[in-house]
Amino acid sequence: MPNNNDKNLMENMLLLEKGVCDLFLHGTIESSTANVHQTFNSALNNSLSIQDNIYNKMSAKGWYAPEQAEQNKINTVKQKFCCGQAQG
């Protein structure tokens, strides 16, 4: 049986990596030069890859099962953004 500490460790790693991705995304967006932008973008892509690997390992062990969105909610969002009918 898998150790619950392993699951907690993986959850913490995933949460930390998501935070890193968020920081690198904002760094990329706010970059003032092409060189800085490229550096943040490269770091973001590396972090996204790490996040994906952690997620895949957790998912394979059944430790991360994303909730499925209801189709009516998906349709509502699609309609809201599809045809310029955004409502405030």
End-to-end CA span: 50 Å
Percent helix among the residues? Answer: over 70%
Identify low-pLDDT runs. Answer: none
Strand content: under 5%
Mean pLDDT: 90
Q: Helix tally?
A: 3
Cα Rg: 18 Å
How is this structure best described in words?
By secondary structure, this protein is an all-alpha fold. The protein has one domain. It contains three helices and no strands. The chain has helices at 4-30, 34-60, 71-82. Helix 1 packs antiparallel against helix 2 (34-60). The longest helix has 27 residues, at 4-30. The N and C termini lie far apart (50 Å).
Characteristic terms for this protein:
single chain; 88 residues; mainly alpha
Topology overview:
Layout: H1 4-30, H2 34-60, H3 71-82
At a glance:
The protein has 88 residues and is mostly helical. The chain has helices spanning 4-30, 34-60, 71-82.
